[in-house]
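Deliverable D2.4 — example input (structure tokens):
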């Protein structure tokens, strides 16, 4: 998927000088837009997909733990979880020790949807990284993991969750 292509008319555009952070941001924004666009076929938003992915890897998380992990306001998370539950993608189960608290699980439909998200993501990555060899992709992943660790970003959690519901 090619977005924001340079106009064909007129003289070739000379790009302004940019740094590595800008290039990373540009590629990341392009990837995020492509992911969001592909998720429309499943009637999902990227944050829905991230929550399904997190619950697929960590079944039985409490709502409170998930809220803290994502850095989301609990009230905002509850609204997202309500929508996922209404679509039968997740299940809330009472905790035997505390009936006021719920554990979160993917439903059968949620597991199938997560599988579809995985297929969609693989196709997106194939498109995005077509210019790189497998060795280069592995190196890029290692560099990005090191940056994420050094910046103390929670692995596997998109920082955009922290902005949901904030103005």
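Example output (designed residues):
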């Amino acid at each position: 998927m090619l977005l924001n292509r340079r106009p064909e008319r007129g003289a070739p555009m000379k790009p302004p000088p940019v740094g590595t952070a800008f290039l990373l941001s540009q590629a990341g924004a392009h990837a995020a837009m492509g992911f969001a666009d592909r998720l429309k076929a499943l009637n999902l938003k990227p944050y829905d997909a991230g929550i399904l992915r997190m619950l697929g890897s960590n079944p039985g998380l409490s709502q409170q733990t998930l809220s803290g992990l994502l850095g989301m306001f609990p009230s905002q998370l509850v609204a997202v979880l309500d929508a996922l539950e209404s679509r039968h993608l997740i299940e809330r189960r009472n905790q035997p020790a505390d009936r006021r608290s719920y554990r979160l699980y993917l439903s059968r439909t949620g597991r199938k949807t997560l599988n579809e998200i995985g297929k969609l993501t693989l196709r997106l990555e194939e498109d995005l990284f077509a210019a790189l060899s497998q060795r280069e992709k592995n190196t890029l992943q290692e560099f990005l993991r090191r940056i994420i660790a050094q910046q103390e970003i929670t692995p596997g959690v998109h920082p955009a969750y922290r902005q949901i519901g904030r103005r």
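Residues 108-128 form the longest helix (21 residues).
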